[in-house]
Amino acid sequence: MDNLTHSLVGAVMGQAGLKKKTGLAMPALIIGANLPDVDAACFFWLEGTEHLGFRRGITHGPPAWVLLPLILAGLLWWFDRWQTKRGKRPEDRLPVNFKWLYLLSFIGCLSHPLFDWFNVYGIRFLEPFSSQWFYGDTLFIIDVWLWALLAISVGWSIVRERRGKPYHWPAIGGLVLSIAYIGANMAATIGHVASFSISNKDMAFPSETLIASPVVFFANEREMIVGEHNDYFIIPAGEEPIRSNAKPITDARCEWPDLTEERAVNSQVDAFLFWSRTPFATRADDGSVILYDARFYDPRARDRFSIALPDVECVELASD
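The chain above was modelled as a monomer; its predicted structure follows.
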């Protein structure tokens, strides 16, 4: 998910009561909820699509769940001591308890891979022990309705706190409603997949992959991606998930090229194929090949979710 969502998740947990466990609890929760995204620093040394094979991996796996909160708790504990020595420590700050700092940093950090799992991009929960990708297919990567739920509950809680009233109930309510909202989205995804599977069980159709991809704004709708390697079909969001509504993702499809040698010498190709869940080849204007992923295909623009192969000639894919 985006970092605003992660931050709001940390904040709502703090306002729900966890911020009273120790001084600097809110920074531990909010920073902790964003901490696994330190892997974004890879953009400084990786080029092109290489980031696709690096992000949501090692900093999102079990060793990071333990080590990143420990580093954060240590820095916050040091910061409190540093402010104390300089006479700058706020008088209303609670005493800092390192064990609680670590536990809250851990809770915040653990929330991050959970929420990253909810979208179609995927996450490698088990790095470095396994590089398997996991996908929740539940929320769009930026969910404005979840923003609203979390932001309103945090804001309402803060207003009540400033007025000297009990403040944790709005945050607890926001957490409950957010969980219900996520559950409803998960049910929508399962329902779309089940509906397509049931309505098409007697029809010949490629079925290695079946994805109900969430879309922005319309939480109950899904764009269906169905097919097999290099041969994917799309059912646009809002249309009934049945075979007759499925359309080829593009008319400019190519046969899948042999990329064994290319992958061995080109780290960009290797990274793209390692990351891609629904890869397919399409024809560029000059007759060469561009690799896309059906989850992030935009025919109007090339972006960081595709890779051009200028030296590979497109062989037109035979029509079904």
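The mean pLDDT is 92.
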